[in-house]
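Open question from group meeting: does this chain pack into something compact, or does most of it stay loose? Before anyone orders reagents, we agreed to write out a predicted structure and look at it together. Recording both the input and the output here so the notebook holds the full record.
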Amino acid sequence: PSFKNYQGFPSNLCVSINQTVVHGIPNNISFQEGDLVGLDIGMKYKGLYTDTAVTVSVGKINKEVEKLLKVTKKSLDIGISKVSLNNYIGDIGKAIEEYVKPFGYGIVRDFCGHGVGREIHEEPAILHYNTGQLGEKMFPGLVIAIEPMIIMGGDHRVVVGKDNWSVNSKDNSLTAHFEHTIAVTKSGHVVITK
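Structure tokens returned:
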């Protein structure tokens, strides 16, 4: 595990519940029926890093919350589909926003995907919304983590919690987060954390 003690983070993984988008610290509070639980896991193996996340539901959830999960997961797949030698980093965020925006959800802007490999977080930053900039052209050997963080209420703003780690939706609405580590290859890409 690569998160433990990273910049002082106290746990091996991030467990983010409901309104917590990312960086939730695991605790002894029991999960409740209908909770959304984000699990974000960083690993180091033979000197190289990966980063992956998934959001799952506890028990039954209503159709609106199911839709949030499906849209967020599909937005990750859409972002991954833009990873190729012919594309630019900005193509990822543009495609994600084009897909997510019609649903009225907020796309977190204060936190983003990133390069990953020799370190937990590397350049380039992978934004999940359209900046209007192309950014860097992708090249073979580039390894990135794409991780759309979506807020159900439509506001993209977040606030840091009292524990100085958990990042929560400012409008206190439910959130979802999915992530994969992807390597650019000569023929397209490989999803390393699939």
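Observations to bring back to the group:
Helices lie at 63-81, 89-100.
The CA atoms of residues 3 and 105 lie 29 Å apart.
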